[in-house]
Amino acid sequence: MALLLCHSSKGGTGNTFVAAHLALALVEHGADVTLLSTAAMDSLPLHFGLPPSTRLPGFNAGADRAVVASGISLRNDPRAPADPDFAATLRDLGFLDNGDRVLVLDVAAGDLGLARALLPLARAHVCTLPAAPESLSLLPDYLDIERGCWSDHSVVAINMLDETRKLTRHTAAFLRELLGARLVGRVRRDEAVPEALASLQYLSRYAPASAALADVAALARAVAPMLERPTLAEQIVPGRSWIA
Ligand SMILES: Nc1ncnc2c1ncn2[C@@H]1O[C@H](COP(=O)(O)OP(=O)(O)OP(=O)(O)O)[C@@H](O)[C@H]1O
Ligand SMILES: [Mg+2]
Questions:
Q1: Pocket residue to mutate for ligand 1, from 38, 129, 193, 201, most atoms within 8 A of Cβ
Q2: Which end of the chain lies in a sparser environment, N or C, as judged by fewer CB atoms within 10 Å?
Q3: Residue 88 is assigned to a structural domain of this protein
Q4: In the chain, how many domains are there?
Q5: pTM tops 0.90, yes or no
Q6: What spacing in Å lies between the alpha carbon of 237 and ligand 2's midpoint?
Q7: What would the pLDDT profile of 31-86 be if each residue is shown by its tens digit?
Q8: Residue 233 falls inside a structural domain
């Protein structure tokens, strides 16, 4: 199973929205997808038209407790960031094996330690950044080897882009210049995104012509080939276990 890590060190950037829609796109391309969120207050069910009261099973709960939406096994485990054996358990459960299955992991912004620990095991890390000035000012921290959460497999998706606003347009242009090929997609700000959540509907059903929907589909097309590459752990020292 390929691990696709979705994490941004800043909260509220649209990380969960992007993770949910990457998972949906991967399923459409025929992958067997599990989507796991580590957030304590989880908004993941809303992206699948499920009520906020939906309780998702933990990552190691049995198949009998599975919540499946659009073919995706949805899971939530807020204990994962504090569990020192989390990565080892993922491996033991077969989540990190090679194969056609994909684990999309939505790691909450504050769970930097977990995100860092998972980086070497991930085939791709998608970091969502809003097209806002704070993204520019925080970028050095993001990329910092000590403080940040960043690897050779990290790419950026700009979110909440509004081309009609000079500031977000210019911020996006700066980000493009600074990140170069690391920037693999941009998602436009689209009121249909929160509206779909509020009406407990899939975005694709609520607003099939949504600009953000088209953009996350394009993002998924850019990210999918990255899942074929070896992880950093496989590349650097073949056979070495990166899991304590
Ligand atoms: N492209 C977009 N256009 C408009 N609204 C968006 C867009 N992307 C995300 N949002 C909205 O922004 C809010 C935050 O999104 P989301 O929950 O995905 O962010 P997050 O980074 O996972 O936040 P948290 O740090 O709380 O986990 C939600 O209300 C979501 O609907
Ligand atoms: Mg989130």
A1: 193
A2: C
A3: yes
A4: 1
A5: yes
A6: 33
A7: 999 999 999 888 999 999 999 999 999 988 988 999 999 999 999 999 999 998 99
A8: no
